[in-house]
What does this fold into?
Amino acid sequence: MNGIPAQRSTSPSSLTQAGSRTAGTCPSCGSTRLTALAMTLTDGTPVRFSSCHECEHRTWVHDGGELEFTDVLARATKVKV
Ligand SMILES: [Zn+2]
It folds into this structure.
């Protein structure tokens, strides 16, 4: 008798997972299964990258604004001289 009720979730993916900050919803499919992580582009621009698990839509946000994919590519592939 340990007093702990057996109420383990049967759901494989808990919505209350600690450590994973939600990145809102996917602008493409509306899913909330996004992975968000902070990263810095090659030119030093700090961005928040989020990737959708459902449709693999990816977004980069800088200063509250979404960056164009081509813009990210341009910054990320800048050749160091
Ligand atoms: Zn999506």
Residues 26 and 73 are 20 Å apart (CA to CA).
